[in-house]
Amino acid sequence: MFVVDAAGTVIHASDEFAAHLGADAAALRGRPLSDFVGDGDWPDVRGTLDAVRRASGWDSRRCRCRLSAGDDGPAVGDAPAETDIELEFVPYRGDGDGYGDGDGDRFDSDSDANRVVGAVCREPSEPTTARLHTERDRFDHLFDLIDDAVIEFEIVGIEPVVRAVNPGFESVFGYDADEIRGESLNDFIVPPDADNEAVDFDQRTADGKANHAIVTRQTAWGRREFLYRGIPYSRGDGKQYGFSIYSDITSQRRAREHLQVLQRVLRHNLRNEMNVVLGMAEEIREATADPRVDHGAARITDHTETLLRVSEKARTAAAVLDDQRPDEVVDATETVRAVIESRRARYPAATFDLDLPPSLPVSAGPKLTQALANVVENALEHTPEDVTVRIEAKRCENDATLRVSDDGDGIPEIEWAAVFGDEDITQLSHGSGLGLWVVKWVVESAGGRVDYDRRDGWSTVRLALPLADEARC
């Protein structure tokens, strides 16, 4: 170690420190510390010293630098001319602990103890005990409190031998830590039909490669599906270790599968049966001369067509949810124009007022077309024929904002409160509610948000989408 005073002069150097630099301890005392610091490293060392002097209490600071005995320092032995080292500076108080100025007098800092600083030298690769304790404490806290199952293991031969498991593992898999520690993890959680898969994962870990997969594993209560992540690491002892993290996704995957089956069966049966009803209603209208029967058949036709439209919206919504492709860059301006142009002929009495920039690239993908189509359709289908639809798009910091407004009656509260507010989800009164959910899902899946506002006779749905990287300010 060594000690420097307020001026940065070395006032004590231990024999071990001097020998490390290949110099004599007496020759180092009385010289500026900057003489021993390598070119370019002094600003960092000086900043660390100043930080220790300003700090209250016994806070320490560390930095790395190159040290040598300097051009004028007498070399001793075969020590290297310059060495890379880690310095830990601490406030020093002359309290009689054995260090002096070489003349038998102890030095102290009198009025300002923090002005004298001591430094301990270490090899850069050698972590301090305090840092090891801090890192271990942080790891233990995470290891114990994470809900996922976490296993620490060592690859012995080709087997992952368990060294530690967290409480999450005991809860998820149903095995006590004492029961599984020292045993092969595969013997407890890998089903027989997944042996080859597990061996491949273990081999990758032995080779220092990470793993990531959806797997089926055996628990004490039966098979479950997991998102598996394998993370290799080494301790420098020639052995290979790893962590396995298992996140139980059984419920999510089963719920998704159930929903997909129910959606497909319901949509198929509903569409087929409603087409039969629609055909029969048309036959009744053609065959009857009774106005009351004709009126009843017409109402059957109207409601049947409404159900068919809802079925089609449900099909579209399912397609959007099943689309797992990553977001792509699309031009929001082009998308808006395409959506509007395809509807001008169908709604000739409507007025479309567009305020769009020449180009507005957003990260949303082609599903943005379906989201905008649902917003525009909602404005057109449930308003008078001569409705005015205004669409404004603009760049706002890192987001693109699209506002779709109409001067119709607005979205029924039962629908917008569930989609945009905090109300419980209720039975949708017609297809517009489902369309709004599609808008919400598309925009939020792209990292954006959707808002609704009713003011001064105008209803506005606002879509905020992330700008593409090349469009960011």
Can you offer a commentary on this structure?
This protein is α+β, with helices and mostly antiparallel strands. The chain contains 14 helices and 17 strands. Strand 1 and strand 2 form a beta hairpin. Helix 10 runs parallel beside helix 14 and helix 11 packs across helix 12. About 7% of the residues have low confidence.
- Measured on Cα atoms, how large is the radius of gyration? 36 Å
Q: What's the arrangement of strands in the largest beta sheet? A: 2-1-5-4-3
Distance between the termini: 51 Å
Output the structural class.
alpha+beta
Question: What secondary-structure arrangement, pairings included, does this model have?
Answer:
Blueprint: E1 2-4, E2 10-13, H1 15-21, H2 25-28, H3 42-54, E3 61-67, E4 83-91, E5 117-122, H4 129-145, E6 149-156, E7 159-165, H5 167-173, H6 177-180, H7 185-189, H8 195-206, E8 211-219, E9 222-234, E10 240-248, H9 250-287, H10 291-322, E11 329-331, H11 332-344, E12 351-355, E13 361-363, H12 367-381, E14 388-396, E15 399-406, H13 413-420, H14 431-445, E16 449-455, E17 458-466
Parallel strand pairs: 12-14
Antiparallel strand pairs: 1-2, 1-5, 3-4, 4-5, 6-7, 6-10, 8-9, 9-10, 11-13, 14-15, 15-17, 16-17
